[in-house]
């Protein structure tokens, strides 16, 4: 029983980088001992499937299967930097499809008219517009019609997205239109990941909100598949580190 209790309260911390996977395993003290054990281990990373390195390291260290795992990773960051994320579409209010490219109009070289800006995360052909409008208080000024929804669905089918980001104007005041669109898309595209700005960043400023939900949609399928695959190979709780220094459950991180 002592051994089982120890396993249930043991904690493993892992940081998966592009070159190495670093693991720290804490085993609490047995009855009668004043201190526990801390084991540090390093294995080469496996970029094509980062979970393989972690599982191999756990096997090397004979980690208890019920151990709590606190996981830090650059899987999402690398996918974003290397532009290896999912095929993503963006749906925004009519007239706002170019928010991602316009940004805050900041330019690296203010007077260089020949500069080439980095391409937007989601290309123009996959940035779609929905005729709808709320005012700054969230009051509905124009709701989409059935025909307009049908036209949008046809455009989405042509895009064949793996993930969809939704960022409608003033949805941080009233998420009615984003929620209605989300329900429709879930029915029509049950296997496509959805990211709503009213859930992820319900704050004003169009570029910040749209770019955030676009990034989330871009990396979400990769993270969801990775975490699901990892969870299938372990028995204990899996928690994911946040940039704030805290951790969240794997199910929340996948969303």
3D architecture notes:
By secondary structure, this protein is of the alpha/beta class. The protein has 2 domains: 110 residues, ATPase, nucleotide binding domain (Nucleotidyltransferase, domain 5), CATH 3.30.420.40; 136 residues, 3-Layer(aba) Sandwich (Dna Topoisomerase Vi A Subunit, Chain: A, domain 2). The chain contains 9 helices and 12 strands. The strands form 3 sheets. It has a 6-stranded mixed beta sheet with strand order 3-2-1-4-11-12. A hairpin with a 3-residue loop joins β1 and β2. α3 packs across α8. The longest helix is centred in the C-terminal third of the chain and has 26 residues. The N terminus is likely disordered.
Q: What name does the CATH topology of the largest domain carry?
A: Dna Topoisomerase Vi A Subunit, Chain: A, domain 2
Total E-strand runs:
12
Question: Outline, from the CA principal axes?
Answer: elongated
Task: Please provide the ordered H/E string of secondary-structure elements.
Answer: HEEEHEHEHEEEHEHEHHEEH
State the strand order across the main sheet: 3-2-1-4-11-12
Total helices: the number is: 9
Mean residue pLDDT: 90
Q: What is the C-level CATH assignment of the largest domain?
A: Alpha Beta
Number of domains: 2
The N- and C-terminal alpha carbons lie at a distance of 37 Å
Q: Please tell me how large the radius of gyration is.
A: 22 Å
């Amino acid at each position: 029983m002592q051994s089982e209790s120890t396993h249930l309260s043991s904690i493993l911390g892992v940081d998966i980088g592009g070159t190495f996977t670093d693991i720290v395993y804490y085993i609490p003290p047995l009855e009668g001992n004043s201190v526990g054990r801390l084991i540090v281990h390093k294995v080469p990373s496996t970029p094509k499937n980062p979970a393989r390195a972690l599982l191999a390291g756990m096997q090397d260290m004979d980690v208890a299967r019920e151990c709590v795992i606190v996981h830090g990773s650059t899987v999402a960051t690398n996918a974003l930097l290397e532009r290896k994320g999912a095929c993503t579409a963006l749906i925004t209010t009519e007239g706002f499809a170019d928010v991602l490219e316009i940004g805050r109009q900041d330019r690296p070289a203010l007077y260089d008219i020949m500069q080439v800006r980095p391409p937007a995360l989601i290309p123009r052909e996959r940035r779609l517009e929905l005729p709808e409008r709320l005012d700054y208080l969230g009051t509905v000024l124009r709701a989409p019609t059935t025909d307009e929804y049908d036209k949008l669905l046809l455009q989405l089918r042509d895009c064949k997205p793996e993930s969809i980001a939704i960022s409608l104007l003033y949805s941080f005041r009233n998420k009615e239109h984003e929620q209605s669109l989300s329900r429709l898309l879930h029915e029509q595209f049950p296997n496509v990941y959805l990211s709503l700005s009213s859930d992820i960043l319900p704050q004003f400023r169009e570029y910040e909100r749209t770019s955030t939900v676009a990034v989330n949609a871009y990396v979400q399928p990769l993270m969801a598949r990775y975490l699901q695959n990892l969870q299938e190979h372990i028995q204990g709780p899996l928690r994911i580190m946040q940039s704030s220094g805290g951790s969240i459950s794997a199910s929340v991180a996948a969303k």
